[in-house]
Automatic annotation (TrEMBL):
<keyword id="KW-0472">Membrane</keyword>
<keyword id="KW-0503">Monooxygenase</keyword>
<keyword id="KW-0479">Metal-binding</keyword>
<keyword id="KW-0812">Transmembrane</keyword>
<keyword id="KW-0408">Iron</keyword>
<keyword id="KW-0349">Heme</keyword>
<protein>
    <submittedName>
        <fullName>Ent-kaurenoic acid oxidase 1-like</fullName>
    </submittedName>
</protein>
<dbReference type="InterPro" id="IPR036396">
    <property type="entry name" value="Cyt_P450_sf"/>
</dbReference>
<dbReference type="InterPro" id="IPR001128">
    <property type="entry name" value="Cyt_P450"/>
</dbReference>
<keyword id="KW-1133">Transmembrane helix</keyword>
<comment type="similarity">
    <text>Belongs to the cytochrome P450 family.</text>
</comment>
<dbReference type="Pfam" id="PF00067">
    <property type="entry name" value="p450"/>
</dbReference>
<feature type="transmembrane region" description="Helical">
    <location>
        <begin position="6"/>
        <end position="28"/>
    </location>
</feature>
<dbReference type="InterPro" id="IPR002401">
    <property type="entry name" value="Cyt_P450_E_grp-I"/>
</dbReference>
<dbReference type="InterPro" id="IPR017972">
    <property type="entry name" value="Cyt_P450_CS"/>
</dbReference>
<keyword id="KW-0560">Oxidoreductase</keyword>
Amino acid sequence: MELELELGSICLVILSIIGGLVGVRWILKSVNWWVYEMKLGEKQYYLPPGDLGWPYIGNMWSFLKAFKSKDPDSFMSSFVSRYGKTGIYRAFMFGNPSIIVTMPETCKKVLTDDEAFKPGWPVSTVELIGKKSFIGISYEDHKRLRRLTAAPVNGYEALSMYIPFIEENVVASLDRWSNYGKPIEFLTETRRLTFRIIIYIFLSAVDNEVMEALEREYTSLNYGVRAMAINIPGFAYHRALKARKNLVAVFQSIVTERRRLRKDNVPLKTKDMMDCLLDAQDENGKKLTDEEIIDVLLMYLNAGHESSGHTMMWAVNFLQENPDVLQKAKAEQEQIVKKRPPTQKGMTLKEYREMEYLSKVIDETLRVVTFSLMVFREAKTDVAISGYTIPKGWKVLVWFRSVHFDPEIYPNPREFNPSRWDDYVPKAGSFLPFGAGSRLCPGNDLAKLEIGVFLHHFLLKYRLERLNPKSPMQHLPHPRPQDNYLARISKCSSS
């Protein structure tokens, strides 16, 4: 009898502990609902399906777990399996109650309706990229800054002027890589190449040691952009903040020196993007401040080499994996060279714009890779969309990956198939490698030009042998093989 009482007491204690844990779990799972949803009143019943997860952490653990696995899309698949293919879900991401949109129509609405949505990047990201950069400023300031910087980056004259320098560096880099006599980290080298190009465009000339140091700082900065905002030594975000501080110091010294040269009326050897930013003024004669110039520089230099460098690497990879595509792209480039007059040296912008098949190769690479998996917006007011309500102040994550891999938009979406673009014009919101709307990536034309020039010369004279095709993938901050694509570059025997 005594033993039975003792066993009963133990069972009661165990049941109490289990009940307590269940209760604690229920309370923790309800905290975000109490804090963010309950105060919405009747509007909470019109929220998209989903849940806000645990306090502070929200859905970030499942996001990071998925993107550190072999199947990053399992994160969004879990929403679809639980709530159906509604194309719009609620979650708690990057420290904020959020709505994730995954269908072209909703993506288009969020990206183009400036009356209803504004940039909603996490505070941690704005701290890294800059409060005066495009991602941190108001709609009016953005229009002004974009108007002042658009032509020197994406204008016809600017692109025509940049081609010779891009081509010179591409040719020299490919020749150097093929003569190394040893394997190279192909991604590391393409990123260095695009960084050298973008540095020239913005700052004319920088010492090689300074350039390498800047590139290392940018690598640290980029890893912090998608990391959790933990400002403790050893964490990616802490390293990124230190990298930003170092970059700002370098750019401030350059801006100060340029202003001194202007004050002393020292003539310019060449006019680069820095000079354009210093000279730029709006219709009221207002010029950019040092902080604005530095944040614009920091933003452009980061975006201008990361996306191009990665896309070059993946485009070559897909070409190597698809010999029929490679041969078709190569034949087009050979035909372009054949049509050149004997006196012409190098590529022209007109030739680049005639590379129809290569353009499809680049677009298909941008779709399959989806370099930026999402962008952030914030609802300026309560917004009705797809039968649901997005509350004022909530973040909206436009999930590019889901759009680009939707089989209803792109049949066999995992297949690399440039021919899918034959006579195909994607509907608004269904192809978003550079975003959309008034905040479309301001350097999109320059990025595609760099990639086009690189692929033109690679296809004509070089081949690549990947040494570790089974290298594990890393998906954050951007898709890449962990070995940075170890490969050998060699010249084609016919060249």
